Amino acid sequence: MENLVKKAEKIKIIFFDIDDTLRVKNTAFMPESINEVFAKLREKGIMTGIATGRNLYGVVPEVLALEPDYFVTINGAYVENQAHDVIYKHPFATDLVEEIMTWLKSVHSEFAFVGSDQLRVSKWDKVAEDAIAPVYAELLADESYYQTHDVFQMLTISDHDDKIALPENLAQKIRMVRWHPNSSDIVPMTGSKAEGCKQVLDVLGLTAENMMNFGDELNDRELFDLAGLSVAMKISHPEILEKADYVTDTVENDGILKALQVLQMID
Length: 267
Description:
Elements: H1 2-8, E1 13-16, H2 33-44, E2 47-51, H3 61-64, E3 70-73, E4 78-81, E5 86-89, H4 94-106, E6 110-114, E7 119-121, H5 126-136, E8 153-157, H6 168-171, E9 174-180, E10 183-188, H7 193-204, E11 211-215, H8 221-226, E12 229-233, H9 238-243, E13 246-248, H10 255-262
Parallel strand pairs: 1-2, 1-11, 2-3, 11-12, 12-13
Antiparallel strand pairs: 3-4, 4-5, 6-7, 6-8, 8-10, 9-10
């Protein structure tokens, strides 16, 4: 623990995942201690950021009210600061979107387009609702969305998502990260929350040892490899638990507050 406290002394910015880290995805519960955490970090001069698979539309009001300094969204593909200045964006090429659509139709999967602050689905049905409604509520269907908007990520939507595998022609361009039994994120080969957070570090003139993160799922994997100090929630995916420097309690049991107190970062 002494070594972790020393690492914590170098931290200048902390990135937080949203779902099952800051708040419980399925119940929308966020403990009052999160407001205390952000206020105390601000007093200490430690910056805060959100690092999420959601886009800006999906960053819920109670998280926006925390007034984080940076938003690393769509698994690192779109980054803004608190003033809504765009720090970084990396959309898919239109021909790649069309190639992905052709493949998904061939394997009988519906899909979603993820824009910077909008989502559109190819079809809204029970399968889509089960996966997406807890995060984004009901979405409009618009298969032509990509023709007039940047698409930063796509989602598979099917009741056989675990059987879907990338074809060889796409496996060198994109990768799939499952986040729900009915859905996987489709991201660029080099795309990750870590890439977006690196962009913030560059702007601030900081290094990875100055960064800390809290997370729980596979889309946090690269971030756990990058950060100088990584904390996993108790309910995290086994791979994340293995990568973590420290494992803390659940959202409901004030896990973030407890971890920062143990690491002597706040009182």
